[in-house]
Specification:
By secondary structure, this protein is an all-beta fold. It contains no helices and eleven strands.
Length: about 120
């Protein structure tokens, strides 16, 4: 089992930045690709970004490309999501998740955190 705990969410104004963190425990962190997903009220959960086990490859949703950056520190068992130039439409619960191989599909992730709320006011 892998336990994932997100932190860093909050209420911010549009145009500002926020960094989310997700710390893992229970298994070898570097064995897993990691992803950030989000779910807005009334909408399906969707991929935001994902990163391979060694950090060499990344995936981004088109809507966040060039504004959000995913990174990881395997020494600290942590994956980050730096979010810049936030928009009201970025408001959602953000989840981190882990799986063996890199990919964008929500259904293929095995481990999930409890989520952290991000609210962007206009």
């Amino acid at each position: 089992q892998v336990q994932l705990v997100e932190s860093g969410g909050g209420l911010v104004q549009a145009g500002t930045s926020l960094r989310l963190s997700c710390t893992a425990s229970g298994r070898t962190f570097s064995d897993y690709a990691m992803g950030w997903f989000r779910q807005a009220p009334g909408k399906a959960r969707e991929i935001v970004a994902a990163i391979s086990r060694n950090g060499g490859n990344t995936i981004y949703a088109d809507s966040v490309q060039d504004r959000f950056t995913i990174s990881r520190d395997n020494a600290w068992n942590t994956v980050y999501l730096q979010m810049n130039m936030l928009k009201p439409e970025n408001t959602a619960v953000y989840y981190c998740a882990g799986r063996r191989g890199l990919g964008p599909s929500t259904s293929e992730y095995d481990y999930w955190g409890q989520g952290t709320q991000v609210t962007v006011s206009s």
